[in-house]
Design goal:
The protein is mainly alpha-helical and about 140 residues long. It folds into two domains: about 35 residues; about 100 residues, Cytochrome c-like domain (Cytochrome Bc1 Complex, Chain D, domain 2). It has seven helices and two strands; from the N terminus they run H-H-H-E-E-H-H-H-H. The chain has a two-stranded antiparallel ribbon with strand order 1-2. A hairpin with a 4-residue loop joins strand 1 and strand 2. Helix 3 packs across helix 7.
Length: about 140
């Protein structure tokens, strides 16, 4: 039982370190911070080209490291499961939640957990693709 507790504690510490590193890892001028992750989640077979573009934006910005989303094969647990929490939500709410995440928090979560600079990091076209992907993914 002590080994299981130690392993669970180590995983929690590792997750916390990853979150801190994500929030402190340079700016756009730092090429290492701007590089997309090396492993891109596999897209489901039924994904359209427009949705695929949104999945690429999702992967590029590491959204799956914090959020679960079945359509992206993501299992993050730091933020809300977007497949559930975004069902029936208008695109404007999704966009606002990305660019101004501290305006409101999903049930069971507190504000301040998501970076506030996605409006500067994600181009307007990519943001639209991401929002469309999230909205369509939440309908499944």
């Amino acid at each position: 039982m002590r080994v299981a507790t130690a392993v669970a504690g180590a995983l929690v510490v590792a997750a916390a370190v990853m979150v801190v590193l994500a929030f402190t890892a340079g700016d756009e001028s730092d090429e290492r911070a701007a590089a997309p992750p090396t492993a891109t989640p596999a897209a489901p077979a039924a994904v359209s080209d427009g949705e695929r573009d949104g999945l690429d934006v999702w992967a590029e910005h590491g959204c799956g490291s914090c959020h679960a989303l079945a359509a992206a094969n993501s299992h993050g647990f730091i933020g809300p499961d977007l497949g559930s929490s975004l069902k029936g939500v208008p695109a404007s709410y999704i966009k606002d939640s990305i660019v101004a995440p501290n305006a409101a928090a999903a049930a069971g979560f507190t504000v301040g957990g998501m970076p506030e600079d996605y409006a500067a990091r994600i181009s307007p076209d990519d943001l639209d693709r991401l929002v469309t992907f999230l909205q369509q993914s939440a309908r499944r």
